[in-house]
C-alpha cells in the first residue's frame, strides 16, 4: 500500500507559493484572436460540441439506465440548447482537462474550480458552490477543529480547489501537512481512509454525501474555509460566442429552477438505497402487499420466478408504491425507465399490473442473456445486480474478477469486484467505466433479506392457519424479526 501511495501522491508540507486572493469574477478580454462568435459558428456548422470531462459520480458515468451524472445532464442540455450533438471525451484526469481545452477542445466540464487567473481559458459563471469538508476514519478521537489535523496523515486531490484550501489553512497551522494526487478520484481517496492508509481527507461536502454509503468507516468531520465555485472552461483566443452562450444557458437553468432540481436530484440525498426497519416492512406487508399479492403471483407463473422474490424486489424498488418516482426519474412499483418500459411493452409505468409484469419479464430477459457458465443462485444474484446497475457494468466486474484470478461465474467473487468500479485504478481498465458498484451489492443483499422475511411470514402464517388462528397480531406473532441479520 505504501508503494501505491508513493506512486500516486506527492507530499505538500512546505515550499509552496502564496496565492494572491482575487475576486471570483469571470474576466472578459478587450480583444480576441478570432472574431466574436466564430468558434460557436464552427461548432454549429459541424453539428457537435466536444466536451472534455472525467468519469466520476459527480460528472459523467454510465448509470443504471445509461449515461448520467450531474454535469452530464447540464452538458447534454447545453448541446440541445446549441442545437448540436454532444461528443464526450471522458478519458481525463483533472490535470489533463484544461490542457485539452486549450489545445483542441470546445468545453471543459469536470468539477472544475473557478480560477480566473488560469492561463489559456475563460471560466463561465459559477454553477454550484463547492464546500470543502474534512473527513476522517471512524474510531479516531479528539478531532474537533483544523488544529487537530496536524497530527494526521491526510490526503486530497490536486487541482480541485481543496489543495488551495489546505495551503491557506497551513498559514495558520504550520505543522499541517498532506499528500496530493493528480490521478486518483474521490472514491479512491475515501477507500484509503476506510482502509487505514490515510487518517483523513479533504474533499467537497456534496462528494461525501454521494459516496458515504460505501464507506461506513469514514466519518464526517467539519467544514473548511469558504465555499469555492464549480464552473466550465472554454479556450481563450477563439472568440467569446461560446462563453456567452454557456453563460446564457446556465443563467436560464438557474432562473427556471432546473439547476436547483438537478442539485437536489444528485446531491440532496445520501442514497436511494436504504436499510428499512423490520417494523416498517411488516406494516407495509399488511397495508400494501395484499393489493399486489395476486399480481406478483401471476408474474411469477409467467416468468418462472418465486413470487416472493419478485415481491422482495418490488419492496426494494418502491416499498410497494405504484406511483413512486426515483431521483433519477424512473417510476412505478418496479421502477422502470422509459426505455425499459418501451422494451417490455409497458405503456403506463404507474399501472401496477404493467409494472410488475414488465419488471418480472425484464429480470427474466437479463437472466437469459447471461453466459451459460453462470448457474444456480449465482445466475439469479447477477441478474438482480444487473437489474440495478446494468449488464455492461456486471460484465466489467466479471472482467475485474478474471484480472484478480477469481471465478467470474461466482457471485461471491463478483460481489467483491463490483465496488472496485468506483475506483479509478480499476474502472479505467473497463469498457463502461465508473459505476456506483457498491449499490448492486447492497441491492441484492436487501432483496435477499426481504425474501427471507417473506418466507418466514408465509411459513408462520401457514402454521397458524393450520391451528385455525385467523387474527394475527404482527408484533406478537413475529417478535424475532428485529433480530434477522442482513444476509451477506
From TrEMBL:
State the InterPro entries in the record: Lysozyme-like_dom_sf (IPR023346), MltF (IPR023703), Solute-binding_3/MltF_N (IPR001638), Transglyc_AS (IPR000189), Transglycosylase_SLT_dom_1 (IPR008258)
Please give the start and end residues of each transmembrane region. Answer: 12-34
- Where's the Solute-binding protein family 3/N-terminal domain? 48-270
Cell compartment(s), UniProt? Cell outer membrane
Q: What is its EC number?
A: 4.2.2.n1
Q: Name one GO molecular function term.
A: peptidoglycan lytic transglycosylase activity
Q: Which PROSITE patterns has this protein been placed in?
A: TRANSGLYCOSYLASE
Does the record's keyword annotation contain Signal? yes
Q: Which reaction does it catalyse?
A: Exolytic cleavage of the (1->4)-beta-glycosidic linkage between N-acetylmuramic acid (MurNAc) and N-acetylglucosamine (GlcNAc) residues in peptidoglycan, from either the reducing or the non-reducing ends of the peptidoglycan chains, with concomitant formation of a 1,6-anhydrobond in the MurNAc residue
**Keyword Transmembrane among record annotations:** yes
Q: Tell me which NCBIfam families the record gives.
A: PRK10859.1
Q: Per the record, what about its domains?
A: The N-terminal domain does not have lytic activity and probably modulates enzymatic activity. The C-terminal domain is the catalytic active domain.
Q: What is this protein called?
A: Membrane-bound lytic murein transglycosylase F
Source species: Vreelandella rituensis
Please spell out the taxonomic lineage of the organism that makes this protein.
Bacteria, Pseudomonadati, Pseudomonadota, Gammaproteobacteria, Oceanospirillales
